[in-house]
Amino acid sequence: MTSEATSRRTPEPTTPVALGLAAEPVKAGPGAPAAAHVRAKLDHELRELLAREPGTRAGADPEDLHQMRVAQRRMRSVLKTSGGLVGPAAEPVRADLGWLGQALGEVRDYDVLIGHLREVVAEFDVRDQPAGRRLVSRFVAERSTARRRLNRALSSPRYAMLLQSIAQLARPADHEVEAPPADRRGPADLRKPYRKLARAVAALPPNPPDDALHALRIHGKKLRYTAELARSGASKKRAAKLQELIKATRKFQTVLGDHQDAVFAAEKVRHVLPEADAEMGFVAGRIVEHELAKRARARAIWLDVWHRIEKAEHAVG
């Protein structure tokens, strides 16, 4: 392969300075305007996204893609809850971050699935492991196809324009748009994401559907990201209380993330069964059984973790 072809496939990484940002990350102190905290958060997360992009393109370490996706999600959450502070351009940028999240999410789901199934198969009897590896190899092939789609997205004009748009929002402005005086609670207001999560929990039946628990996880993640932004502009005492809320939402995310991973893995493995031979079918059945047990464990504890969130949020006030 020629160096020219390689260059076309792997563009030079975009730097913060090339996007018009300062060489060093922007910081906003406790007394800064709320909009300054939003811009500083966007600046930080955009730098993280750019730093993880080369590794995401290469695909050698799944953690790069994971952290790039986390940066994308945090920016999208910030713009959802506090985008009005940085102007009307925030909403189109949030929409394009959703597009990027879909491209990153497809590959991330396969990374998690493949890594987990390899661990499960490694615990099986030696005689069952070859069939298990053949099953996993199907998902590896599907991931390769998804990764090609992702790299095309990262090389597209839409992605390049998205980076420029985020940088424009992140750059300090001469005049910051403040929240109305009656609602000056810092750079982020916890009330809306908390109420959404609380209402979603209250609406659940005794044995919630899988997709309802997945939706709870998304609500919890939004609350966590909002709390992280609120912490940046908080007093020392309030920041400590917010940290407890962040810990509780992180645990909530982990428990319901384990639940969703188990549901996803079981469903993907079930789809293989019609084409599987006897050995692979046997292993697939064992994997599905394993995942259903994991799902049950998460269902047994998620409500306790929710009560920790309630307590932490009430303490913040």
> Helix proportion of residues, in percent?
over 70%
Given as residue ranges, the uncertain stretches (5+ residues, pLDDT < 50) are: 1-8, 177-185
| Total number of helices | 10
Number of strands: 0
Number of domain modules = 2
For the terminal residues, how far apart are their CA atoms? 61 Å
Overall pLDDT score: 91
Structural class: mainly alpha
The main pleated sheet reads as:
none
CATH topology of the largest domain: CHAD domain
| Overall CATH architecture of the largest domain | Alpha solenoid
Question: H/E element string?
Answer: HHHHHHHHHH
Describe it for me?
The protein has 317 residues and is an all-alpha fold. It folds into two domains: 8-173, CHAD domain (Alpha solenoid); 188-317. Helix content is 75%, strand content 0%. The chain has helices at 3-9, 34-58, 62-82, 90-122, 129-154, 157-170, 191-202, 210-232, 236-272, 278-316. The protein is globular.
What keywords describe this structure?
0% strand, 317 residues, 10 helices, disordered N terminus, CHAD domain, 2 domains, mainly alpha
How does the SSE layout of this entry go?
Layout: H1 3-9, H2 34-58, H3 62-82, H4 90-122, H5 129-154, H6 157-170, H7 191-202, H8 210-232, H9 236-272, H10 278-316
Helix pairs in contact: 2-3, 2-6, 3-4, 3-8, 4-5, 4-6, 5-10, 7-8, 8-9, 9-10
